């Protein structure tokens, strides 16, 4: 990246209320003496344990809803499982600010939040929307649910039992192709909603996927192979719980991720934190998740494309960045966590740099709120906002991208204030070399 200075299951309504309660204006950081750097690093690890813990509990609630759906496949139970999936995204997306600076998180993240995915790997698709195949991915139309045997890497694979081991060890990223996503939130999302065939057109032509509950009902099966589809959904959800259980332990007392942060030298530990904040802000969120889709006007580049939940995922990513800078987090049960913060450390060294970043964090969240309001209040989903021929919607997304870019400049100001030297942040061709996009 270039130097930017030079350039019961919670309902969606409850999730919205929580987000709005967390989005109030920031209070000025204390002008008191700087906290001890090790205390800041320790509190950062405490926040990680709490946030991954909340993500785990939400995943367990999702698993319970999936169990109910697969046992009694009704539209009511499908709707409850979908609500549980959306609720589970809220705590998980806030943890993404721990990525990039922490190798343990980066090495693991692809198991739970990899995207985009070639959904034809998993289940049936509408070829008129999805296409007839992909030369770069021999598994793009494998349809694991319909096919108990397939070829992966030139070898025959017995997929007659769709269990956790098969999904995680054999099918996820099969043939070395990253879009062969067989596990995690987005595989579960596709199974719950099905393919989004609505495009980016006017409001009457948009919406999430519309998979019927009967796709999970062997007694009145639609879509074929309903018992295998239910088995896949259960295995993927169980695996998500396992993966989050493992990650929460990495941040607990004695966990490897906690030890790596707390045991780091002060500047090294601060660099880990700020690498995560800056890389998520710029290359990942502003670039790969937002600018790329806007440039291509492509709903396939929408993060939560099957559920039309992307506005919330972007919002919670931005909130997660702010949480970690301020050293605060509101747990799912309403408990407030606060402690020695990076903000207080910066404020003691360079009050102007701290104030500038806090201002940018607030502004970015306000731009993300515009995207939330568009979907939740105005009925215009994120995929419509990025559609061709929608200059007003495009401008709303671009405003959020610009806010993230300016926020990253302020993060660079904090890096300079702390004397951390040249910290490498993730970039994106969509921002740094747009002429390369689409080649």
Keywords:
single chain; 439 residues; mainly alpha; two-stranded antiparallel sheet; 56% helix; disordered N terminus
Structure report:
It is a single chain. The protein has 439 residues and is mainly alpha-helical. It is 56% helix and 3% strand. It has 16 helices and four strands. It has helices spanning 12-22, 37-71, 75-94, 103-113, 127-130, 164-171, 185-193, 226-251, 256-262, 266-296, 310-326, 342-349, 351-376, 382-385, 391-417, 429-432; strands spanning 149-152, 155-158, 328-330, 336-338. The strands form two sheets. It has a two-stranded antiparallel ribbon. It has a two-stranded antiparallel sheet with strand order 3-4. It is globular and about 65 Å long.
Query: Sheet with the most strands?
Result: 2 strands, antiparallel
Shape: globular
Give the terminus-to-terminus CA distance. Answer: 20 Å
List the helices and strands in order: HHHHHEEHHHHHHEEHHHHH
Q: Tally of extended strands?
A: 4
How much of the sequence lies in strands comes to under 5%
Structural class: mainly alpha
C-alpha Rg, in Å? 22 Å
Summarize the topology.
Layout (H helix, E strand, L loop, with lengths): L11 H11 L14 H35 L3 H20 L8 H11 L13 H4 L18 E4 L2 E4 L5 H8 L13 H9 L32 H26 L4 H7 L3 H31 L13 H17 L1 E3 L5 E3 L3 H8 L1 H26 L5 H4 L5 H27 L11 H4 L7
Antiparallel strand pairs: 1-2, 3-4
Helix pairs in contact: 2-3, 2-8, 2-9, 2-10, 3-7, 3-11, 4-8, 7-8, 10-11, 10-15, 11-13, 12-13, 13-15
